[in-house]
Amino acid sequence: MEADENPNLPDAEFLGQTGAKVEGQTRLDAAYGSGDGDEQSIPSASVAGGTKQHEQAYLGTVFDQSYQSWGGSLNPRWARNWAILRHHVYGLFSKGHRPYGMATKLILFAAFLISLGDLGMSFISAVFSETEMHRVFGVSKDNLYGHVLGFWPRNAICFPIIAALLIGGIISEDRTHGTSAIYFSRPLNRIDYTAMKFLSVAIVLFMLIVGTLGIYYTGDILMQGEGWAFFLDTLPIFLGAALAGTILVFTYSSIGLALSSVSRGKFFPAVALLGIFLGMKLIAFLIYVLFERSVLYLLSPYDCVAHVGQALVGTTSTYDHPWTWSLMSLVVINAIALYILVSRVSSMEVTRE
Amino acid sequence: MAYETNNHTIKDPTSGAKSGEVVSDQYVIETNDLVKSYGPHIALDSLSLKVKAGATGLLGPNGAGKSTLIKTLLGLIGVTSGEGKVLGFNIRTEGENIRSKIGYLPEYECLNPGLEAIHQVAYSGELIGMNPTSAMQRAHEVLEYVGMRDQRYRKIETFSTGMAQATKLACSIIHDPELIITDEPSNGLDSRAREFMLKTLQQIVGEGGRSLLMASHLMGDVEKVCDRIVMLHKGRLIAQGRIEDLKSIEQEIEIHVWGHASELERELQNSGYEVRRTGRVMRVVRQDESTYAAIIESAAKSGAQLRRMNDHEPSLEDLFIVIMERLGYSVKSSVELFQVGGSASKVDAPFELKEVG
Amino acid sequence: MMPDIAQTGQAAGEWLPQAEVPAVMLDKVSKWYGNIVGMNDISLAISGGVTGLLGPNGAGKSTLFKILAGKLKPSQGTVRLFGIDPWKNTAPFARIGYVSENDALYDWMTALEFVTTLARLYGYTRDEARVKAERVLEFVDLKDVMHKEIGKFSKGMRQRVKIAHALVNDPELIILDEPLQGCDPLARTTIMNVIREFGAMGRTVIVSSHILEEIERITEQIVILNHGRLLALGNVHAIRDMLDAHPHSIALSTDRPRELGKAFLDHKEVFGVHFPEEGKLIIRTHNLGALHADLPQLITDSGFSVTAIDNPDDNLESILTYLTGGGD
């Protein structure tokens, strides 16, 4: 290969010249040792006793490495994306993937059980043939809506807390640990990275919120032995509630990831998410009580989803303004969150944060 | 600064070649007039690099544009103008292909402390597109290779700097890349871990036949591993080529003397030898084969102990400093710190950055 | 054990600290973190000159530095800086410059503001502080960027800000924990020069580095720590001489190794010679100094030509390996 080259091409160049005289004066100036070389006596030193035992600690390294090449082929984009998704979702269930705290896993499990509470009540009413009880706990517009969006402790506390736990470090940890370098020095694009992180959170929340809705709905129908007619009658309501749940999941994820992407820790995004959802709800509620204005509910993501959900399911609206306003507000809120998320992710560095 | 950066007068030996394939055979990295600016700040200034297969050191003072160059080569940031190819792929459009073929060892921490080493490495392989089984198999192989056989199932948060660095290296070589780009690979390692890291890199290049671009401030490390260098300053290319060719062989003998050094110095000078001395270290200009005997004889006469004697070979560090001196920088001494200050009433700075005319 | 690492500075200025008061004195100092021993019963006195502090990661170097910098109070024992207990009187700190290993700087300040602010803490007036800050920043080659925020600096530049701030008060005792990390060769050589020169002036410099070549180039006075204990201190070569378990060797490059080897076998300090490769002769001895004293004469008398002499295991790396097991 060398011979093919133009013989005039210098193999080394600097400042346009070849071959430099390097004297190494600086090395000499700062050369070995501070002594002046004129000492007449041997310098003193002391060595702590027991040096022999320290030698024992040294076992030495025998360098018996040999580099092995790898001839496998690389899968395309979908496989890489699937790896990210799996890493985050499987982490909840098994070792070797993204580590989640034990508390997160337990709370998630507890929330899952709590979310099946209405199925339990329906089961009890079926066992004891309590029609009165079943009227309260069986499948109905209000119950399907309530499962996803009713403002009671499970929805108001469990779901946001789970969302907060899931999104806490999801992007910020890549900043703190520097793992963004691992992602972005590989053939991934940032949109895929963001989308997979988003999906991984959304899937878990979806299973928790909409999944349990589905279990409740089918379980109740089976246990009560309702016929096809009932099923077909209630299916649109169920789908409406499921869609409302999906919107809720989407909103939680987009706001949560945006918060995670602007921070470095996992505490801030989690607290901020709870603050935004519950705080805005509280402020809007106080304003409503004091001044009888419901417009401020437009700033509360939870109420916007609830309002849209009410329209989708077809229950009576608890808000004074039209539901389309809430839908618009929701679109704007999500758009802002996604914009922040995408722009923050695109500024993540592989070299130094 | 006015100086010629490159050999534009010499025809590119590859210009007659038909396809990019040939280019990639010869150069793993090739850029042509690459410019990257951030607003008014020019990070890379018409950079024309040619990096051959093998180990190449990427040198330059702090802020020379090394990080920017690495990001550009990975296809992560757009270039303002110019062209570049890494392994035959265009850095403007084929970043994903480049990143599939190279391994990157970042300077800073990049591991998830909650994961076990084996899973971190396997995951980093999956992210390149390896399927999970082969990624896991290969993760065992590379972790063993970087000396982490017994720490594979330990959590990364318990690792020392050396172990973390080895794990990072394992992550970057899991897919057997053709080119490995390392950023300060021995930073923060103690001497034993550093030695191991350098030997490993050396072996990947030597035995593994892979190419390496190693950014480092430790000239000793670069000299151990690399046979070529590329040196940047303020975004410009100021030197590239084989280390050996950039240094001219100096005919000097270095001796380390213990006791009676001044007598020895006098003795040698009286015998007509040119001697430079700093403390116990002296350099004697080598006149011919008899110089060695003359030094030993003089030492015998003056009673000096010759603790060390060898042909002085200028180090890469000397080369670096010579190049920087040509650019108008200089190694300073504390005199400069005191001269201006202290109680003396000297006003102007004793040292300024000079433009090289 | 109260060894004295006093070193005579040649170019000592008239402000040279009085030799009878060591700049640093530790007497039976220990530091525990809960049950973990950070430093165990260390006594040493350092005065004038440059001392290299060595040891693998986790050997207790940082603990020692923090105690010297007044950041930690020892659990036991006495610490004296210029003869004063730094926990009772903060006066010594005005004479100390400290570069810590961690990277804690005010990212939102410009380099000039940062160094000026810290200089003012030493009691300089605003103008004095600014002049001094500008001078040290220029010295570390940060003049061009001194009005930029530190947050935008690269690692090497941040390191130089730390060094500038350690030099701003013209200190007599300088404590440098890994000062060269991330610096380019030019800055590295400059900083090494300054360290050597400060030592030659009689100031006291204590410096640590993982890169043993750097310590070798700065000083021969070293302190080796491991597991919080003092393993050795003093001159590198003297320490090496004391490690009897590891005989010394002298390697010679010569055209007639076997014949030359025979000539050496008669010397009383030589207990073995061997020939590892063509043109190489290795002589084993327990008394390096004595053999070296006679070596030039022996070679001259033998009449064979020798083109290189080396003590392959008289260096910091082998000392550290023998004493600590080389690393973690």
What is this structure's SSE topology?
The complex is a heterotrimer of chains A (353), B (357) and C (328).
Chain A: E1 12-14, H1 25-29, E2 45-47, H2 51-57, H3 77-90, H4 102-115, H5 117-127, H6 131-137, H7 141-149, H8 153-167, H9 172-176, H10 180-184, H11 190-224, H12 228-261, H13 267-291, H14 301-313, H15 323-346
Helix pairs in contact in A: 3-11, 4-8, 4-11, 5-6, 5-11, 7-12, 7-14, 8-11, 8-12, 8-13, 11-12, 12-13, 12-14, 12-15, 14-15
Chain B: H1 20-26, E1 27-38, E2 41-47, E3 50-52, E4 55-59, H2 66-73, E5 81-86, E6 89-90, H3 95-101, E7 102-105, H4 117-126, H5 132-145, H6 161-173, E8 179-183, H7 191-206, E9 211-215, H8 219-225, E10 228-233, E11 236-242, H9 243-246, E12 252-258, H10 261-270, E13 275-278, E14 281-285, H11 290-302, E15 305-311, H12 316-326, H13 334-340
Parallel strand pairs in B: 4-9, 4-10, 7-8, 8-9
Antiparallel strand pairs in B: 1-2, 1-3, 1-5, 5-6, 10-11, 12-14, 12-15, 13-14
Helix pairs in contact in B: 4-5, 4-6, 5-6, 10-11
Chain C: E1 24-33, E2 36-46, E3 49-54, H1 61-68, E4 76-81, E5 96-99, H2 111-121, H3 126-139, H4 155-167, E6 173-177, H5 185-200, E7 204-208, H6 212-218, E8 221-226, E9 229-235, H7 236-242, E10 248-254, H8 257-265, E11 270-274, E12 280-285, H9 288-302, E13 306-310, H10 316-324
Parallel strand pairs in C: 3-7, 3-8, 5-6, 6-7
Antiparallel strand pairs in C: 1-2, 1-4, 8-9, 10-12, 10-13, 11-12
Helix pairs in contact in C: 2-3, 3-4
Chain oligomer state: heterotrimer
Name the shape of chain B in a single word. globular
- Number of helical regions of chain A: 15
Mean pLDDT of chain A: 80
Q: What is the string of SSEs of chain B from the N terminus onward?
A: HEEEEHEEHEHHHEHEHEEHEHEEHEHH
Which consecutive residue ranges of chain A, at least 5 long each, have pLDDT under 50? 1-12, 14-21, 29-33, 49-63
Q: What about the largest sheet of chain B?
A: 6 strands, mixed
The gyration radius over C-alpha positions of chain B equals 25 Å
Q: Structural class, from secondary structure content of chain A? A: mainly alpha
| Main CATH class of the largest domain in chain B | Alpha Beta
State Rg of chain A: 32 Å
**What's the number of structural domains of chain B?**
2
Strand content of chain A: under 5%
| CATH 4th-level superfamily of the largest domain in chain B | P-loop containing nucleotide triphosphate hydrolases
Shape of chain A: globular
Pick out the low-confidence regions of chain B: 1-24, 340-357
Strand segment tally of chain B: 15
Which protein chains are joined by the largest interface, and how many residues does each one contribute? A-B, 78 and 101 residues
SSE run of chain A: EHEHHHHHHHHHHHHHH
Distance between the termini of chain B: 7 Å
